[in-house]
């Protein structure tokens, strides 16, 4: 009897991100999540303390945020997923907010964490807010910059893009630049 021929494993191929980037197309993609599976280990499940349920379904990371707001202030959240050591980068996120209430925000947090980073948030009324949580003065939504722009689609998906280069941040919504910001503490360069 003859011995079976061993099979040869194919050479691994590089992962090609299906998301096309318009800012700095020459930069290498190092983190790409299309939410077809939980590739990057997002924490899924129910967080009763913060009123958040997280799941991945149909190529989407679904964040069901249901807080009991008793303060009378606007509410919202930014979900942090740290990417350490990033200095010059482009970050894109396509998101949609469905809310019964107005003035709820969603966005991205860069250059640190919840108590030190810079947040860029949009609401479901066409407003944007740049908040520097590392600022030594008053911490309130939009303490660095705020405004409104027709590039923000009401009750529809929006793409937020952050271009970080040389310690300065440019914030885009649906390919329209809405704000730029350079924190005074530029040695913090982590994306969250």
Classify the helix fraction into a percent range: under 10%
Oligomer: single chain
Structural class: mainly beta
Number of helices: 0
Strand order, largest beta sheet: 4-6-7-8-9
Topology, number of strands: 12
Globular, elongated, flat, extended or rod-shaped: what is the shape? globular
Termini Cα gap: 61 Å
Spans where pLDDT lies below 50 across 5 or more residues: 186-192
What order do the helices and strands follow?
A: EEEEEEEEEEEE
Gyration radius, rounded:
20 Å
Query: What fraction strand?
Result: 25-35%
How does the major sheet shape up?
A: 5 strands, mixed
The pLDDT mean sits at 78
Feature tags:
4-stranded antiparallel sheet, 12 strands, 192 residues, disordered C terminus, globular, 5-stranded mixed sheet, mainly beta, 0% helix
Short description:
The protein is mainly β and 192 residues long. The protein is 0% helix and 34% strand.
Description:
There is one protein chain. The chain has strands spanning 45-47, 52-57, 60-65, 76-77, 89-95, 105-110, 118-123, 127-132, 145-148, 158-165, 168-173, 176-181. It is globular, with a radius of gyration of 20 Å. A five-stranded mixed beta sheet has the order 4-6-7-8-9, with no helix packed on it. With 192 residues, the chain is mostly beta strands.
Topology:
Blueprint: E1 45-47, E2 52-57, E3 60-65, E4 76-77, E5 89-95, E6 105-110, E7 118-123, E8 127-132, E9 145-148, E10 158-165, E11 168-173, E12 176-181
Parallel strand pairs: 4-6
Antiparallel strand pairs: 1-2, 2-3, 5-10, 6-7, 7-8, 8-9, 10-11, 11-12
């Amino acid at each position: 009897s003859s011995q079976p021929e061993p099979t040869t494993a194919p050479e691994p191929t590089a992962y090609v991100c299906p998301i096309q980037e318009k800012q700095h197309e020459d930069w290498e993609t190092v983190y790409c999540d299309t939410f077809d599976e939980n590739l990057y280990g997002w924490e899924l499940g129910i967080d009763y303390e913060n009123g958040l349920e997280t799941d991945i379904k149909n190529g989407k990371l679904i964040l069901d945020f249901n807080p009991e707001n008793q303060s009378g202030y606007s509410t919202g959240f930014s979900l942090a997923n740290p990417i350490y050591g990033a200095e010059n980068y482009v970050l894109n996120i396509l998101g949609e907010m469905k809310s019964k209430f107005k003035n709820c925000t969603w966005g991205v947090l860069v250059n640190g964490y919840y108590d030190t980073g810079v947040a860029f948030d949009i609401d479901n009324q066409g407003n944007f807010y740049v908040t520097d949580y590392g600022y030594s003065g008053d911490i309130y939504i939009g303490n660095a910059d705020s405004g409104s722009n027709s590039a923000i689609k009401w009750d529809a998906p929006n793409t937020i893009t952050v271009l970080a280069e040389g310690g300065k941040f440019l914030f885009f919504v649906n390919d329209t630049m809405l704000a730029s910001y350079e924190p005074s503490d530029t040695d913090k360069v982590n994306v969250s």
